[in-house]
Amino acid sequence: MRKLNEYLVTIDTIYPDGYERERVFRDAGDMVEAQPFPAVKPRTLMGRIISPFATWFGKRQSRLSLRDLTPEQLHDIGLSRCETTAELEKAYLLSALRRSF
Q1: Could you tell me if 42 and 50 are in contact, meaning their C-beta atoms sit under 8 angstroms apart?
Q2: What's the helix, strand, coil split of the chain in %, to 5?
Q3: Where does the record place the YjiS-like domain (predicted)?
Q4: Which of 7, 20, 47, 53 has its CA 20 to 30 A from that of 64?
Q5: What's the rounded Cα separation, in Å, for the pair 68 and 72?
Q6: Quick one: which of 93, 39, 34 has its CA closest to 63?
Q7: Can you tell me the distance from the alpha carbon of 54 to that of 42, in angstroms, rounded to the nearest whole number?
Q8: Of 50, 47, 46, nearest in space to 58 by CA
Q9: Would you state the pLDDT for residue 9?
Q10: pLDDT for 6-47, tens place per residue?
């Protein structure tokens, strides 16, 4: 059988800030604001070359994921099928160029 302090260590691992986020949520009645990560600019030449492509690829993946959503899911996030189609055309630009070669 485990001792009580072993269980408490587990709870401290799950809630390392001692329930601070839960207290703030409960007291304010609203969600705790996320702390955004500061934008880190690439320092090297190779990083500056790759960074725009990485950003573009991430946006493309997000746009392509819209294709798999049902009309109900699109409605939940506030998009219509027409808006989704317009975003998908942006994602297919490079794909269409790649297919033509």
Answers
A1: yes
A2: 65, 0, 35
A3: 60-83
A4: 47
A5: 12
A6: 93
A7: 12
A8: 50
A9: 53
A10: 545 555 555 555 555 556 555 555 555 555 556 778 889 999
